Amino acid sequence: MKLSSATLEVLKNFSNINQSIAVTIGSKLKTVNSLKNILAHAKVEEDFPKGFAIYDLTKFLGLLSTMDDPDLSFNDNDVTISSGTTKCDYRYADIDYIVKPEKDIDMPECEIQFTLKKDVFTSMENSATVLQLNDIYFKGCEKSGKIIMGATNKKNDSEHGLSMEVGEGVTNKFNVVLKKENLKIIPGDYNVAISSKGISHFKHTELELEYWIALEPTSDYE
Questions:
Q1: Which of 59, 72, 128, 135 is the most exposed, fewest CB within 10 Å of its CB?
Q2: Domain that holds residue 195
Q3: What is the pLDDT of residues 93-125, one digit of tens each?
Q4: Burial (Cβ within 10 Å: 0-12, 13-18, ≥19) of residue 143
Q5: pLDDT tens-digit map of 186-222
Q6: Distance CA 115, CA 214 (A)
Q7: Closest by alpha carbon to 117, among 176, 15, 190, 177?
Q8: Beta strand spans in 63-141 (E)
Q9: pLDDT score recorded for residue 125
């Protein structure tokens, strides 16, 4: 089996959420971070023939990057990675020591919904990084009916602030907050749904890729 560039991108993204991964039989990859407040699912083009676990996903991907068009053969205790005359038997991890998703999320009713464009998110993320702003918020203004995306530091509101419009149709005032470090999503356009129950859902508009990210306790919905 050869891994496509799209699958490698998903695995690299997932390694930023959790350094380890437990892969199940089939074409769906899942991961969750150690705090279990970020969950991600992706459907890939490959169909994995057996379940296995990788403890250090970054190291595994780094190994693949050193080889030219590597081919993977999944054995009982390891995966054989071959490229030309080079071969490596990479041992699986004990799945019992891997933090992995235990169940899917049944998303509650979402009062806030909009589409977040790739260029808007990228601009916000880059600007927030330059200004060292750690919190991303989505605020609903009843008067204008607009949804505003912004960046700030909730612990120090006297610092720089950043905001831009991302949606409309607001009927209730809200201010939901996510940690910027938790928004570890692959660049793209996303349909975003946010529930007052404390959870957000980011679903890629073109790929079978989605993330569930917990809101911060400072979030408010009226």
A1: 59
A2: 112-214
A3: 999 999 999 989 999 999 999 999 999 999 999
A4: exposed
A5: 999 999 999 999 999 999 999 999 999 999 999 998 7
A6: 18
A7: 190
A8: 71-74, 78-83, 86-91, 112-116, 135-140
A9: 94
User: 158: pLDDT confidence band, cut at 50, 70 and 90?
Assistant: low
- Burial degree of 102 (CB within 10 A; 0-12, 13-18, 19+): exposed
- For 188, left (φ over 0), alpha (ψ -120 to 50), or beta? left
The Cα 126–Cα 131 span in angstroms is: 9
Domain check: are 83 and 167 in the same one?
A: no
Q: Please indicate, yes or no, if residue 58 is contained in any of the structural domains.
A: yes
The CATH number for 59's domain is: 3.70.10.10
Asked whether residue 119 falls in the same domain as residue 58, the answer is no
